[in-house]
Amino acid sequence: MENGTMPSYFYFTLFKEFVHLRYFIVIVTFLVYFAIVLFNVIILYVVLKERSLHEPMYILITCLSVNDLYGSAGFFPRLIIDILSDTNVISRSACFVQIYIIYTYAISEYTILTLMAYDRYVAICHPLKYHKTMTSKVTTLYMGIASLYAMFPMGLVIFFSARLPLCGTDIARLYCSNWSVVRLSCGVSTSTNNIFGFFVTTTTVFLPAFFILYTYVRILIICQKSSKEFRGKALQTCLPHIISFVNYSIASFCDIALSRYDSDKYKFAAIVFSVEFLVLPPVCNPLIYGLNLPEIRKHILCLFRRSKIAHFPSK
């Protein structure tokens, strides 16, 4: 393929190195995916069922759970199939669909965390204006804008990447990523698409991250000037968001850094860190919010108590 072609399939090359561990890896992968689905569905059920939780902060938490389920669905089922497969082949169309799902998940994670930070900023820094500012209509509008913010730029990236003539078909990753496909392209088109992809990544990921940092700096300034009781309440509501933001930022940075770095010496570590942003946030987010926010924790405990009573009724 010296002059470049449009291959119908791509080949994952990493799976052949772990054939002897395939069944163990499948079991671990399935258990992790099952935990992600279970934890996030519990959060969704509790928040949507309890009317007292129909507030912007909790609705945004459900959006985070929906996004985590969406991103996980684009990664885990395909991963299990590839581990059990002997060919490790993915069609061109399926590869770009997976790229779109994983990247829109990644961008949406930041935009939802941005909305959460803004919600806490208004609630703590402008409490008297909160109910007028964060109405259900405004929250819905923000959520729609956040979705378009992720979908439209990635649509453009996929459009340009799908038109590239390729000089190879081997992908040395566990899933399709835009860079893994772009680096297979021929000639100057690689650098051009790479620059465009970098620009999209910068504007869609780092801008929300800077806004989140700004809002929490403002919140810290207000807390320093307030009473000890006020600081305690503010910390209780902000801490889960800060943990989620730091957790996801570290995970996504590892993927961005390692996606363009090939290392045969530390291949296993590179694989683990490259999928961290698809594993840790979906697992940790429901645990962070379920355990740290009293209202959600209370309703989850009530849910399990009712379930226990239903299965073991008193005589």
TrEMBL record:
UniProt cross-references to Pfam families, sorted A to Z: 7tm_4
Cellular component, GO, one term: plasma membrane
Residue stretches making up the G-protein coupled receptors family 1 profile domain: 39-289
Entry GO MF terms: G protein-coupled receptor activity; odorant binding; olfactory receptor activity
Annotated membrane topology: Multi-pass membrane protein
Keyword Metal-binding: no
PROSITE patterns: G_PROTEIN_RECEP_F1_1 (PS00237), G_PROTEIN_RECEP_F1_2 (PS50262)
Transmembrane segments: 20-46, 58-76, 96-118, 139-160, 195-217, 238-258, 270-291
Keywords tagged on the record: Cell membrane, Disulfide bond, G-protein coupled receptor, Glycoprotein, Membrane, Olfaction, Receptor, Sensory transduction, Transducer, Transmembrane, Transmembrane helix
Alphabetical list of InterPro entries matching this protein: GPCR1_Superfamily_Member, GPCR_Rhodpsn, GPCR_Rhodpsn_7TM, Olfact_rcpt
Subcellular locations according to the entry: Cell membrane
Recorded family membership: Belongs to the G-protein coupled receptor 1 family.
Stated name of the protein: Olfactory receptor
